[in-house]
Specification:
Chain lengths: ~450, ~350, ~300
């Protein structure tokens, strides 16, 4: 009895003292470029989050091994598990933002992005949200620190509607058709709605919104509703375990999978692998290619995996989300390189300097080829006003065993999106009492 | 030797009935308040403030509210996250829709909205008891989860359903830096802790405890179960609602309904049980334990220099957390507050054995 | 009308599956007085064990036959659940005899966290497949009466059949075998059972093992439909209204409650849901259970709560 209470008291005291000791290391002069890697390897979204995180880590390891860093500056990283939860994401951010040489943050989650958008402006760390996050943050004049490179949910939705329109023989043929949006009931899933509403008004198709309660493991009612209303097309806006469940339920209710179109976060191997033949014909957007042939993947296999340093299994290298993680990390590294061109080659860049680098990226085809990314993605160039850099994507289809591209390159229609983005950015600026950046500020 | 009350005679009822009748207790509390208000803001780092002290203060406020319902009145509630959410969103709406609304008023009005809903969901407790009530309160949890995602009016028509606040100030003093946030939360906590302590010492507290111990017997001697149970729900929801408002405004800054989901409810219930049911001190102990433990567990591998994969670290955290909860319940089912009062009792006799 | 029947069937099928999970809760509550919040984690743990053993056994023991792999994996998973039951009884239940309900509830919550972490450490966090040869495509019946026919999911039909067989087996076990009688005695009155020589500890291990077995069957069925991943444990949250609606101590209550909640959920989501923008089924189930409880505070078939002053 006595021992037990003693042990208990000891535990409690240890926990209490532990609290005081968990403050991060004191600030030291930065000698290395530090990337905090927020990731989730547990929870309902782990199957998709893990290859993404592995891609980022492998790219850093490869750059250190192949090039010795960025112009001689070595890259360090530390991973922090968020579980896709906003509060853990904020806690990871707070813990890692004070490290010397911190570069940028890729939260890997829309919810965490929303929470961090206000904080990064005060802490001066850029937020890289490739293909997700606040759609309005494309407007760099208001969102100085957010970079939704290569696309946002509005561009994704736009491209899907364009593709469906092409399939029907013209956007005017969409009149009277029914399109159902089966979405993850969270900020991520609701983000495309303003654009879809706009397009539905323009072309006269009926948009049916069917929510799936997070994390989306029970979808029978959603798909019964789909069966009841028999839409011509279903747009799948899911993440993690919701995607494979959706495909399984679609099969169980007999909805033709080839009429289903997923966003680029609903079109990767973990989503269709265990459905296999049942997902044959399912289409999704993709920002990048997959496969092990690009030169950068070969470099990683040679310099990282062959040396036993690979973060994940070798079979995962070159999958859709892994490659996307590579791209995100590559853009971060190139932003640092660009910043070094202005602020001092071979020096460690601060968050502000990296932000300038992100805002002045100019990756044309030649540069991409030199980096080993030829054919993987399209050229990208950002500016003060445009924090997206490129608005291209393609549709790929699952044939039961692998993905194959089934469309040409699509580009989001800036005529529709730009006014929406500007209006949303203005609304945000009014709410937060910010003013648009001046041209002088753009040069700084 | 140190903790005796010889020579401390009370000459008025008032002084006899004070919360801390022993002088040493009063000195200890005074020192604690001095440390809390002065020493901690001056000495601790920004990270410590932001990541440990501010969540600890807000969650101990919420645990205080829950302890009143579960510990003092015996009504098990698994829907606390819902009441926090209502407090947060209501305060947000008052703040966003009425220009020039003072922050403190918004938070208190948020608490009042939470009270109204709390009383509504407390009505079933008049019929349903025990574990059935616990699961029935989950109805409140899931309903509010859904309502704040679906009903656009609550989130001021934001397209994504997540809301954010900025530019907080209390009567002109800005609440931007961690120290200011900490002091605001500390202020709220001290005021509410005092109110709660006085409530549970008074007639209403005794009614609650009677209902908790034997509700039929309590009804027989004239305590109205309706009044007691509904006031417990009301007071508890008010405190939890204000805590929810503070959590959203001060700690998170920007939140979505998932911030107040069922995991939060379980977390608060853990705090109350581990801290000690039916004890105001217990809420603080429990909150400290539950806030600090995951952070310590997450950082443990790095202190020992063992590089382990973050997924494994996260799983280990889960496992150790679960195991510690069970260990605690086996060793001290009445919570840390019982350990504390045992320690105080031993201290009264020290250095004598009896 | 055809679609209404489809929704009805779908609800009944899903209700059977909820009943399976609720059965685990009821069994444990009846015999050891513990409300086992860890049932969801047990479903997940069992399903993960089965899924991974199905992958690993052929590799370790070098055979190809899928049916053999399934059988061995199932046996392995049953063994794992028995070990889990034994550990829980020794390390947790024995030390918490006679504690209040809420303490026991919190202990099972602690066990939930532990099992979730341990399961993912041992077996991984990816989505794993359980392939017991269930048909995936739907069938259409009554095509003459209703245009397009009424869709019935074959997998759900098989699952409901398996659930019914399991319930029948359990009923036989409880009524006809000596252990079953001992279990019922313990459920009635712990002290009386102990006084006639029934070993309480062993009975608890048996009950938790049976509940583990039920969790395994539920896990296999759900896993075969949806794939096995961490989020499977959240399905248990949908089975809680079934437990309180039917009564914490009643096996027929779990079944009838399951059917009511299943049908209620699906009908409400399809017909009332669109008026509110959808997504109402989870709270509707709880509100439905709450309304029933207001009229019968102990659930439909539960034991009346007698307060002695």
């Amino acid at each position: 009895m006595k021992f037990k209470s003693l042990a208990l008291a000891a535990t409690v005291t240890a926990v209490g003292l532990g609290a005081l000791a968990t403050a991060p290391a004191a600030f030291a002069q930065a000698k290395e470029q530090f990337f905090p890697l927020l990731a989730y390897r547990t929870g309902p979204y782990a199957p998709n989050g893990t290859p993404w995180a592995n891609g980022k880590q492998d790219y850093i390891k490869m750059i250190n091994a192949r090039d010795g860093g960025i112009n001689g500056v070595k890259i360090t990283f530390e991973e922090c598990e968020t579980g896709y939860a906003t509060d853990k994401g904020v806690e990871c951010y707070e813990r890692l933002k004070g490290r010397p040489g911190v570069t940028l943050i890729d939260p890997q989650a829309t919810g965490i992005t929303f929470a961090l958008t206000d904080k990064v402006a005060a802490d001066k760390i850029p937020l890289l949200t490739l293909g997700y996050g606040l759609s309005a943050s494309q407007d760099g004049n208001v969102f100085k620190w957010n970079f939704p490179l290569m696309g946002s949910y509005w561009t994704a939705a736009d491209m899907l509607i364009q593709h469906i329109g092409k399939k029907e023989g013209g956007l005017d043929k969409l009149k009277g058709k029914k399109i159902a949006l089966v979405y993850h009931d969270s900020p991520f899933g609701k983000e495309p709605m303003p654009l879809l509403d706009e397009r539905s008004k323009m072309h006269g198709f009926e948009l049916q919104k069917i929510p799936v309660t997070a994390p989306g493991v029970e979808q029978k009612s959603a798909w019964l509703q789909v069966r009841q209303s028999k839409p011509d097309y279903v747009l799948l806006w899911g993440w993690g375990v919701m995607n494979s469940t959706a495909l399984k339920e679609a099969q169980a209710t007999g909805y033709p999978r080839d009429k289903m179109y997923g966003v680029w976060w609903a079109g990767a191997e973990p989503d269709v692998k265990d459905v296999g033949e049942g997902a044959k014909g399912y289409n999704a957007l993709n920002l990048n290619t997959s496969g092990q042939s690009p030169k950068v993947i070969q470099d990683i296999l040679k310099l990282v995996h062959d040396k036993g340093q690979g973060t994940g299994p070798k079979e995962e290298v070159g999958t859709v989300l892994y490659t996307r993680g590579l791209i995100i990390q590559m853009l971060g590294v190139e932003a640092v390189r660009r910043a070094q061109e202005r602020y001092g080659k071979g020096k460690v860049m601060t968050g502000e300097q990296v932000r300038w680098g992100l805002e002045n990226l100019a990756l044309d085809q030649k540069k991409l080829d030199a980096l080993g990314f030829s054919g993987v993605m399209r050229p990208l160039s950002t500016s003060c006003q445009d924090h997206m850099g490129s608005t291209w994507a393609r549709v790929h289809t699952w044939d039961g065993a692998k993905w194959a591209f089934s469309s040409d390159w699509l580009q989001a229609d800036e005529q529709i999106i730009k006014p929406m983005v500007t209006a949303a950015a203005d609304k945000y600026a009014a709410e937060k009492k910010l003013t648009r950046r001046t041209p002088a500020d753009c040069q700084s | 030797m140190l903790y005796r009350e010889n020579g401390q005679f009370k000459s008025s009822y008032r002084s006899d009935q004070q919360i801390f009748p022993i002088l040493q207790d009063r000195i200890a509390i005074g020192l604690l308040l001095a440390v809390a208000f002065v020493a901690i803001p001056l000495l601790s780092s920004e990270y410590l403030m932001r990541a440990i002290f501010v969540p600890f203060l807000i969650l101990s406020l919420a645990a205080l509210g829950l302890n009143i319902l579960v510990g003092y009145c015996g009504q098990i509630s698994l829907g606390t996250g819902a009441f926090m959410a209502i407090g947060a969103y209501a305060a947000y709406n008052f703040q966003a829709r009425i220009p020039g609304m003072p922050l403190v008023f918004s938070l208190l009005l948020g608490g009042l909205c939470s009270t109204a809903v709390g009383v509504l969901f407390g009505i079933p407790s008049l019929r349903i008891k025990g574990l059935y009530l616990a699961v029935a309160t989950l109805a409140a949890q899931f309903f509010t989860d859904w309502a704040f995602l679906r009903i656009k009016w609550f989130t001021n028509d934001s397209s994504s359903g997540s809301v954010s606040v900025a530019g907080l100030n209390v009567f002109g003093i800005p609440i931007e830096s961690p120290v200011q946030k900490y002091l605001l939360c500390l202020g709220f906590l001290v005021v509410f802790a005092l109110l709660a302590k006085n409530l549970v010492r008074g007639a209403i507290g005794r009614e609650w405890m009677a209902i908790r111990d034997m509700d039929v017997a309590a009804a027989v001697i004239g305590i109205r179960p309706v009044y007691a149970k509904l006031t417990a729900f009301a007071v508890s929801s008010f405190i939890v609602g204000v805590a929810g408002g503070l959590w959203g405004f001060v700690h998170l800054g920007s939140w979505e309904p998932a911030a107040f989901n069922i995991d939060r409810s379980f977390q608060l219930l853990f705090m109350v049980i581990i801290g000690g049911l039916g004890s105001i001190m217990g809420s603080f102990f429990g909150a400290a334990f539950i806030v600090v433990l995951p952070i310590v567990l997450d950082g443990l591998p790095y202190w020992f220099g063992i590089p382990i994969d973050t997924a494994l670290a996260s799983h280990l955290t889960f496992m150790i957390f679960g195991a510690l909860i069970v260990f605690f319940l086996i060793v001290e089912p009445h919570g840390i507050a019982r350990l504390w009062s045992t320690a105080k009792e031993k201290l009264r006799l020290w250095p004598f054995p009896h | 009308m055809g679609f209404f029947l489809e929704t009805l069937f779908g609800g009944l099928m899903v209700g059977m599956l909820y009943s399976l999970i609720a059965l685990g809760f009821v069994l444990i509550y009846k015999a050891s007085g513990v409300f086992n919040f860890a049932q969801g984690a047990m479903v997940l743990f069992a399903a993960l064990a089965m899924a991974r053993f199905y992958e690993w056994f052929p590799k370790w023991f070098g055979f190809e036959n899928k049916i053999l792999a399934n059988v061995l994996a199932f046996a392995g998973a049953v063994l794992v659940m028995v070990v889990v039951a034994w550990l829980i009884e020794r390390l947790v239940l024995r030390k918490l005899v006679n504690q209040e309900h809420i303490t026991l509830l919190m202990a099972t919550l602690g066990i939930t966290y532990f099992l979730e972490g341990f399961g993912q450490t041992l077996f991984g966090s990816d989505i794993y497949k359980i392939d017991i040869g269930m048909p995936k495509d739907p069938i259409f019946v009554l095509e003459g009466m209703f245009q397009g026919g009424v869709l019935i999911n074959k997998e759900d039909l098989y699952a409901a059949a398996i659930a019914a067989v399991l319930v029948a087996l359990l009923a036989l076990f409880f009524q006809k075998t000596a252990t079953g009688r001992a279990l019922r005695a313990v459920a009635d009155d712990h002290q009386a059972a102990q006084s006639i020589g029934i070993p309480l500890g062993r009975i608890w291990i048996i009950v938790w093992s049976v509940a583990g077995f039920v969790a395994l069957v539920a896990g296999v069925i759900w896993g075969s439909k949806l794939g096995v991943q961490f989020s499977l444990s959240l399905v248990a949250l949908k089975a809680l209204p079934v437990v309180i609606l039917g009564g914490l101590t009643s096996v027929p209550g779990a079944i009838i409650g399951g059917l009511i909640i299943g049908v209620g959920e699906k009908l409400s989501e399809i017909y009332i849901g669109p008026m509110f923008g959808g997504g109402i089924e989870i709270w509707f189930a709880y509100v439905l259970a709450l309304v029933f409880l207001l009229f019968r505070p102990q659930g439909l078939f539960g034991e009346k709560i007698i307060d002695r002053v």
